[in-house]
Specification:
The chain contains 3 helices and 4 strands, in the order αββααββ. By secondary structure, the chain is of the alpha+beta class. Helix 2 packs across helix 3. The protein is globular. About 40% of the residues lie in helices and about 20% in strands.
């Protein structure tokens, strides 16, 4: 699994939350995705919560809450979607970033 698939996973989660009415409809803002340089680990960081919060410009949609909502959704679906079997963990950082850890092959 590479960064492109991780980015797609995040975009699909945003679309699903919107479809279920858990996230307000708006244009999906540009997201950044960075692979962290951690020894023995594959971890990607996305600004998803921060970007969504800025796009929605609503105090009810704080970056951490949006990132936590995305993380919870992703944790629910990663075991049910075979294409995402490499995802080991998904966490929301307090600043609104999303961390996605992958299993080493």
């Amino acid at each position: 699994m590479d960064g492109e698939i991780v980015a797609d996973l995040i975009l699909r989660a945003i679309a699903a939350l919107r479809e279920h009415g858990e996230l307000a409809a708006a244009d999906t803002p540009p997201l950044t995705l960075t692979r962290l340089d951690l020894p023995g680990q594959i971890v990607y960081r996305s600004n998803a919560g921060v970007a969504l919060s800025a796009e929605l410009s609503d105090r009810a949609n704080a970056p951490f809450e949006l990132a936590a909502k995305l993380a919870a959704y992703l944790r629910d679906v990663i075991d049910t979607v075979p294409a995402y079997h490499d995802v080991q963990a998904v966490e929301a950082e307090h600043n609104g970033n999303l961390l996605i850890s992958l299993r080493r092959s």
